[in-house]
Design brief:
The complex is a heterodimer. Chain A contains 12 helices and 13 strands. By secondary structure, chain A is α/β, with parallel strands linked by helices. Chain A has an 8-stranded mixed beta sheet with strand order 2-1-3-4-8-7-13-9, sandwiched between helices. A 3-stranded antiparallel beta sheet of chain A has the order 10-12-11. Chain B has 4 domains: about 190 residues, Pyruvate-ferredoxin Oxidoreductase, domain 3, CATH 3.40.920.10; about 180 residues, 3-Layer(aba) Sandwich (Rossmann fold); about 70 residues, no CATH class; about 110 residues, Rossmann fold, CATH 3.40.50. Chain B is about 40% helix and about 20% strand. The longest helix of chain B is centred in the N-terminal third of the chain and has 21 residues. The chains are: A alpha/beta, B alpha/beta. At the A-B interface, strand 1, strand 2, helix 3, helix 5 and helix 11 of A face strand 9, helix 7, strand 11, helix 9 and helix 10 of B. Strand 2 of chain A pairs parallel with strand 18 of chain B, so a sheet runs across the interface.
Chain lengths: ~350, ~625
């Protein structure tokens, strides 16, 4: 029998692209930074969903987190804007071209302090944007000062205690009208990937607060955003799995144990109950779960809230389906008779 | 006249030589929120329809109801439409300012006043016309709530009768003012007639001011600068508009919304070929412009000084990352909140150099409503052509007041979208470098998000970057890039609208921009006729300054730079473009009291400095 050398099958996704097509430049963040793990999950999510990289726009503000769009989807257009103002740049981008899938990466300082104004209004508008907060409770790039998501009583490396309560960006997002709100942990690969894939399938603001430890300035004892603290205190709301629209659901589950959510693009999120009953379509329940988690010192993760079918900002603006950016002159410059009509009315 | 039995004029007693025809300024002093804008617009329109060159300026408070407000109308057979300081004909309706208003008049002026104010006691050298407004209003309007608004329409009739304004034109103006509100038009015209008839029966014409039909306004339109700019934006093909309300710019975007909803809905789908967003603040408004401009839209915002200050950081990003966008600055008086409803040219220097680091931006200076319209289109072409934020520096006087103009011309050239590579271009080229100066003009090629070619993507950033848009802190890379931006600005210098120069002398020159133009042309006339001084004139239309501007300065012994700010801001910018002795040729004429500049002030300021020369 002749021996044949088997060529290992090339690993490609459903549109024939290799994982390398979704990678970015080499990260310049610290080794072990939670942000790098999040970038890897973003790469996986777009690869597995088979999204063409050119259909994506990457946006960010300023800070360690905001550098990361350079570390995924290399061939995609990206925009590293100004501190705390990524929401407005993302809004403008989507106004110009509503066919893009926009992903914005921010940090806890970029969102909850300098950018809280734009964050609040972004959530209110339900702009179809995947908004990720890479949340480490501190300002890494300026060497570790507290941010506004640092928990009460959490300490800095030099022992300084945080004596102000944190801003819970998830609670705020739910309150303000975001339609897909989750918290995850950079170390929880499976959950984070499912939440990211779900966010890609959603048409509205998907706000993901991802606890992402800063290994250099906020990973010590006394910090509530350290790897060990989050590992010890993470309480998932449920077990979450994602079934893309191009695959059939082939998991069996007992009725009553799992909530199935159909997303805009036809994908599904399967939310399997763990210890507690939880309805992710109930705003009040979501806010209660978040408040209780603070009281109990737990880091509750998972999909807190989802509302599908809600018109997003671009729907409300009633803009044409094609990108406004490239509409031809005939569609954007009215004919001479229009100007004549206006001139006549002013005589 | 419409009411023929009232045509007999009491003016018959005055010798013909004393009749001053079609050359007067009217001021109406009222209380904000009393409906006086409608009355004043009716007066303005009626005079306009009679073919007399006019201008109307609303000198209003930052208030919705209760504070004093003035409206001045100038009618000039010579076509001078700048504000005139001297008032010939005053209408006193506001008790709070009545004494001040009357005391401010020159001897011989006429004064219509609410009889209960008894302003006659303040002066004995004016022509007074007392009118019982309350009594007349009560007779016309039984509804006490409406009476306040109708009351002001009565003075329109009084003034019309005294000046001999054609009542047919007044009636037409009333109908135009109230458009579809037919009942309101009826009631208001009734009030006009009540004033007219009262005057005819009870007041003897004793002042010399009259108006007569002319034919100077044939085919002309009447429009405010903000509406003109809005029209220009629509014709420029704007697709993304983001704004935050601020006086005096709000009406630009509000009018634009009206026009776009009417004329820019896709006929097949009924959907909008535009997106207009009222942002949460000016930071977000400019951020959306930058995001939209980056993604390829024709994007704009409109604001005033405080908004410009807030936009500073994003504008620097736009300059450095090279993102197009158009920003209208309808200037008002600063610093800080300043006088929000008064006019100035006070943002020139800060806007030209807006943001930290080495930044500078092109500014366009419209002088007229026609330029508000045409420069809106030029601004978009320049912004996309040079991939940078472009400012249109209007002001409150231009933006919010009504101006006569020839009808605007339909654009004679297609929209120019600048250097954008699509997927087919990249297929041909193989690759591109975002910030590489291929053509030697300092302007690189860009691709838009959504371009399917694998080489299209690049990473835009406000941090240091090389020609491929990749992060770099290397000294030579930084210098190379920032020098290219300087080179781009030099290319821009040749592309922006050049100055309009009148006169070929070498002695005295006037240099001005924006709304100062109207006072300057009248002042040139005064300088010539009254002092025998011939002054050339350079009207600057953009920054960076074209070579013709600096050449104008070099050619003249003395150049008076006329501007509406304290710090001689444009002269300061001009100094940066001049060398050695040429700087010494500059003098300044500065006007900064919040009111539109007038010719007499310029003439006096020039002559007082000329005496020393």
């Amino acid at each position: 029998m002749a021996t044949t050398t088997a060529i290992p099958p090339r690993k490609v996704n459903r549109i024939g692209l290799e994982p390398a097509a979704y990678k970015g430049n080499k990260s310049t963040l610290c080794a072990g930074c939670g942000h790098n793990a999040i970038s890897e999950r973003i790469i996986e999510a777009f690869y597995e969903m088979g999204v063409e990289p050119h259909r994506v726009a990457k946006l960010s503000g300023i800070g360690c987190s905001s550098k990361t769009p350079a570390y995924f989807l290399r061939s995609t257009h990206g925009f590293n804007a100004v501190h705390g103002r990524m929401p407005s740049v993302a809004t403008g981008t989507l106004l110009a071209n509503r066919t893009m899938i926009a992903i914005g990466v921010s940090g806890d300082g970029d969102t909850a302090s300098i950018g809280i104004g734009q964050f609040v209004h972004l959530m209110r508008r339900n702009l179809p944007l995947i908004y990720i907060i890479e949340d480490n409770g501190c300002y890494g790039l300026t060497k570790g000062q507290f941010s506004a998501t640092a928990d009460l009583g959490s300490t800095l490396k030099n022992g300084v205690v945080n004596d102000l309560p944190p801003i819970d960006t998830c609670a705020l997002a739910i309150e303000l009208g975001a339609t897909y709100v989750a918290r995850s942990f950079s170390g929880d690969k499976k959950q984070l990937l499912a939440l990211l894939e779900g966010a890609i399938g959603h048409r509205g603001t998907a706000m993901l607060d991802v606890i992402s430890p800063c290994v250099t300035f906020n990973d010590h004892e006394g910090s509530t955003k350290s790897y060990s603290y989050v590992k010890d205190h993470e309480e998932p709301l449920g077990d979450i799995s994602f079934v893309p629209y191009f695959e059939d659901i082939n998991v069996d589950y007992d009725p009553g144990t799992t909530t199935e959510v159909t997303l805009h693009d036809g994908s599904h999120l399967l939310l399997k109950k763990l210890a507690r009953e939880y309805d992710p379509t109930n705003k009040v329940e979501a806010l209660r779960a978040l408040t209780e988690s603070h009281d109990q010192g737990e880091v509750v993760t998972g999909l807190f809230y989802i509302k599908t079918g809600q018109p997003n900002f671009l729907d409300l603006l009633n803009v044409v389906d094609e990108p406004l950016a490239t509409l031809p002159e005939a569609r954007v410059r009215p004919p001479k008779r229009v100007l004549d009509e206006v001139m006549e009315s002013l005589k | 006249m419409a009411t023929t039995q009232l045509t007999a004029t009491e003016a018959q007693g005055l010798p013909e030589r004393e009749r001053l025809v079609n050359d007067l300024s009217i001021q109406v002093a009222t209380v904000n929120g009393s409906g006086s804008t409608s009355s004043n617009m009716v007066l303005l329109r009626a005079l306009f329809q009679m073919g007399i060159p006019i201008s109307g300026k609303n000198l209003f408070p930052s208030n919705i109801e209760g504070l004093p407000t003035w409206f001045t109308i100038r009618a000039s057979k010579h076509g001078w439409i700048a504000r005139r300081k001297e008032i010939d004909f005053l209408v006193v309706m506001n008790p709070e300012t009545s004494e001040e208003d009357v005391r401010g008049l020159d001897p011989g002026a006429a004064c219509v006043y609410d009889e209960k104010l008894d302003v006659k006691r303040f002066r004995d050298d004016l022509v007074f016309y007392p009118v019982p407004f309350d009594k007349l209003a009560a007779a016309v309007c039984p509804d006490a709530k409406l009476r306040k608004l109708v009351r002001n329409m009565i003075y329109v009739g009084v003034v019309a009768r005294l000046l001999e304004i054609d009542m047919a034109e007044v009636e037409k103006a009333v109908r135009q003012q109230f458009k579809k509100k037919v009942k309101a038009a009826e009631l208001n015209y009734k009030a006009v007639l009540a004033g007219y008839e009262f005057t005819a029966k009870n007041l003897e014409k004793r002042d010399p001011f009259f108006v007569e039909r002319m034919n100077a306004n044939q085919g002309k339109i009447l429009i405010d600068g903000n509406s003109a700019a809005a029209l220009g934006c629509m014709m420029a093909g704007v697709t993304v508009v983001t704004w935050y309300p601020i006086t005096p710019s709000s009406s630009l975007c509000e009018t634009l919304i009206t026009y776009m909803k009417r004329y820019r809905m896709d006929p097949e789908t009924g959907k909008a070929t535009f997106a207009i967003v009222q942002a949460e603040d000016e930071l977000a408004a400019i951020g959306m412009v930058i995001g939209a401009g980056w993604a390829g839209a024709r994007a704009m915002t409109s604001t005033a000084g405080p908004g410009i200050s807030l936009m500073s950081e994003f504008v620097g990003l736009g300059y450095y990352a090279e993102v197009p966008g158009v920003i209208f600055d309808i200037q008002r008086v600063g610093p800080s909140t300043g006088l929000p409803t008064r006019t100035a040219q006070g943002d020139i220097l800060s806007t030209a150099l807006l943001s930290h680091g080495d930044t500078k931006h092109p500014l366009l200076f419209p002088s007229s409503v026609d330029e508000c319209y045409s420069m809106a289109m030029e601004a978009f072409d320049l912004a996309e052509g040079f991939q940078t934020p472009v400012f249109v520096m209007s002001d409150l006087d231009l933006g919010m007041n009504f101006w006569m103009s020839a009808p605007f011309a339909y654009p004679d050239k297609p929209i120019s979208r600048g250097k954008v590579l699509d997927a087919a271009d990249l297929e041909r080229l193989g690759s591109f470098q975002r910030y590489h100066d291929v053509d030697g003009d300092g302007v690189g090629y860009r691709t838009l998000p959504g371009n399917a070619h694998p080489a299209a993507g690049y990473f835009t950033r406000g941090s240091g970057h090389d020609e491929r848009a990749i992060y770099s802190e290397k000294p030579e890379v930084y210098t190379h890039n920032i020098d290219r931006l300087q080179h781009k600005f030099e290319t821009l210098r040749k592309a922006v609208p050049g100055p309009v120069i009148e006169g070929e002398g070498e002695g005295l020159g006037l240099l001005a921009y924006g709304t100062s133009h109207w006072a300057v042309i009248e002042s040139r006339d005064q300088l010539g006729k009254e002092f025998g001084v011939a002054a050339d004139y350079c009207r600057v239309r953009a920054f960076p300054f074209s070579d013709e501007v600096t050449a104008f300065v070099r050619r003249h012994r003395r150049v008076y730079v006329v501007e509406q700010n304290r710090d001689a801001q444009l002269a300061g910018l001009l100094r940066l473009s001049l060398t050695g002795d040429d700087i010494g040729r500059l003098r300044s004429v500065l006007h900064y009291d919040g009111l539109p500049i007038d010719a007499r002030s310029i003439t006096e300021a020039v002559m007082s400095q000329e005496v020393g020369n």
